[in-house]
């Protein structure tokens, strides 16, 4: 069965949807070639969009093990770089024209289940199923586009964010489960989960998190006051899963909060240490009690937006969640 031709082809844009039997080869990670357009330059260029452009929202999952984070870097492969390369091949547009922007700049080694990004095109699509299939066909197996939809002009993957939810997993046993080694931090110390819950409650609410932020070399000076909506500590056998939702997070804030909770769980410090360090607003104060935890236990789970920003524009195609395939039953000959 053949896939319908790309609607863009009717407007003079090269067709991007081949017939179904064609398999897209996965691009080797060494072949990606990113330009030097920075994330901040992309944000500025978004303000200059022409009224004839169309905006598209992606929900992306990735295993961050071999990537140097989400955002573009000149020397090492990043998730943004690889997604952009696939988009340029599909749309026939250059990176500077796509203006791909992500909701969160995850660090090297950090995973995502619900990273959100948007890009623009000068043409519309009647259907997104073929584009979705083509995109995942080009991407390596550790990056998947879970969803693609049209977006209203007001939507911005980064600036429209209402809140984000992160998970951090700790494997709390004497011997590490090899199937969790890339997705959970190993703690051989028996953790007092009840004490960790008590400590986590002190993070909830609006606070100045300066003491829990590392200095970023290329970011603008952020507002250190963030609102934490919930911070849960769940025990599931040897796995201890920390879930935190907040209006936003400073550079390395989640990992630094987890590091302090680990010290509380080891009973090296009491839960009351949290408000003391928060009140200091000094990163050096945290360093007296805890070091940062490794990135591979962290996952960006969900990015939330206001409902009005998630609506589909009039006349846009339906959202694509991927397409299931079925095999027709063979009819055996009757004798």
TrEMBL record:
EC number: 5.4.99.12
Family per similarity comment: Belongs to the tRNA pseudouridine synthase TruA family.
Reactions catalysed: uridine(38/39/40) in tRNA = pseudouridine(38/39/40) in tRNA
Organism encoding this protein: Olea europaea subsp. europaea
GO BP, sorted A to Z: tRNA pseudouridine synthesis
Protein's UniProt name: tRNA pseudouridine synthase
CDD domains reported for this sequence: PseudoU_synth_EcTruA (cd02570)
SUPFAM superfamilies: Pseudouridine synthase (SSF55120)
UniProt-listed PANTHER family: PSEUDOURIDYLATE SYNTHASE, TRNA PSEUDOURIDINE SYNTHASE-LIKE 1
InterPro entries per UniProt: PsdUridine_synth_cat_dom_sf, PsdUridine_synth_TruA, PsdUridine_synth_TruA_a/b_dom, PsdUridine_synth_TruA_C, TruA/RsuA/RluB/E/F_N
Keyword vocabulary terms for this entry: Isomerase, tRNA processing
Source organism, top-level taxon: Eukaryota
Enzyme class label: isomerase
Molecular function as annotated in GO: RNA binding; tRNA pseudouridine(38-40) synthase activity
HAMAP family listed in its UniProt record: TruA
Segments forming domain Pseudouridine synthase I TruA alpha/beta: 60-159, 199-306
